[in-house]
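Friendly challenge for the regulars: who can give me the structure tokens for this chain first? No prize, just bragging rights.
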Amino acid sequence: FELAGLKPAGENGDYLQKVPMIGIDTAPESTLSVTTPTGTMQLKQLDDCVLMDETQRPQSDVNADVLFMGYGITAPEYNWDDYAGMDVKGKVLLMLVNEPPSEDESFFKGKALTYYGRWTYKYEHAAKMGAAGVILIHRTDMASYGWDVVRSSWSGERSYLRGDKNPKLSLAAWVQLEVARKMLAATGKDVDQLIKSSQQRGFKPFALPLKVQAHIVNRVRPFDSFNVVGKLEGG
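First reply, four minutes later:
Bragging rights claimed.
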């Protein structure tokens, strides 16, 4: 920046601006189970599922009913709202990765992936709507990456802005497709049929006879990162 002729715009007359961050690592004693009409499924971290807590607390406990939310998208410009008429407060939302498939540029930008299809949007939007948690169903062709990517990306420390006041999920999770298949089969539902019906405009989310119990223990590490800031003075 100095070589480019920019003046310092950071703290203490230099180019660095401190950014308070927090690192969160899910501890191995964390657990996730799903009670179905036929019994309880204990899901194994990293193999069956990946679970996280975004709240920056040392631990979170979730005991909640489950709603199947299709893609979990509210996109007024595409006349699409999976949340219409749904009270999701305190619930765990089971939803699909990605977005409704399209060849039409005017509908979710055709083959391009919009922000609505990204896991970050799904977690953020569900938290704003008051959900306790989200479980994303991973399917390789829909996500465009395999489970090994999910496993490696979320098995270590994740960084967040310290003290972020935006709503956060106590349970932010992924499950393997076959785990979701067993979970839904116990309720009399077929996951492949649900994926097809979720792709139709007018799909209505619904409650499932499932209950999620999660105990998430976090290793929390405050640290500082830095922006590099310069300014070009005007006339």
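DSSP finds five helices and 14 strands in the chain. The chain has a mean pLDDT of 94. Your move, everyone else.
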